[in-house]
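Usage example:
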Amino acid sequence: MRLKPTLKRNLPERDVLRLGDLANWRFEGTPLAVLGHPVKHSVSPEMHNAALRELAVRNPAFKDWHYFKFDIEPERLREALDLLYENRFKGLNLTVPHKILAAQWIEAAEPEVRLSGACNTLLWTENGYRGYNTDLYGMTRAIEESFALKLQGRQVLLIGAGGAARAAAVACLTHEVGALHLTNRTREKLDLLVEELAGIRADIPISIHPLTGAFSIASPNLIVINATSLGLKESDPAPAVLWGLHPATKVLDMIYNPSKTALLKQAESLGMRTANGLPMLVFQGERSFKIWTKNSPSVETMFRAAVDGLAE
Ligand code: NAP
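Running the assembly step on the lines above writes:
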């Protein structure tokens, strides 16, 4: 691949690149990227490139920055990270299923990565990539914006035990939820997560629930968060049944593409307030952008670009 900043208008934004594209990487600007598998659904490139274009108007030093999208299988993540580092990718986002794997390899990491065991943002440094997790901030801000409430004192039912669920669980504990209810398809992964969360806030009750059947949680103060990847395909069923939960329950699905998953449809039919993962994407992206560029992006610009990207 030979890409010159002068050809910026023609740079791939919607294209999905692969490991092979790094073999002769010749981009002469400052590259950023998201790595995932699958990753086709991601509108992170549209969102970050819009913010970069806006920043470049104020500060031309950013005119040659560009954000790419790579589909990388988990077996090849290590190799990909080495190649991206060699090619001086200044910043990376990690999405499904890479967040836990990457956290195990990154030696220099912010406390939120060590607490959650998950990493979604990497910053190039002379000594290797430094790890961050901006999902904690993204999820917390998304709940505040979408439902006009704070996590503190709420009951939270979290579905999943992967990278995003780990970040969400740590955010819930550090923001002092009243109780944390956890459920996941694979019990062993959930048990491991509960073990790792134990030291964070021993005073907050954590309980494990089966994923099949109705949940026995009666609180009107409940927020349900889907942090599984079930729903990414239009045909996917909901990961859980919400019948029996209080109609005042709020439901956040971290998935934003498709915009209304089977879980959100089910919640709406039960009269519950819902939000998809778009606000979370934008807020976690805002934080990552600031880590890489040391500049605050316009959240409105990022949101608009993500919505436009989804509409195309
Ligand atoms: P991950 O580490 O691969 O974890 C996947 C989770 O989904 C695990 O809990 C897994 O359960 C569960 N799962 C997968 N297939 C399932 C199925 N068929 N039935 C039930 N559960 C299933 O992925 P991740 O990084 O945590 O991401 C999870 C989701 O959150 C993705 O859809 C991602 O796009 C979304 N996300 C969105 C944002 C945002 O900004 N909006 C940020 C982060 C993540 P097992 O343990 O049983 O395998």
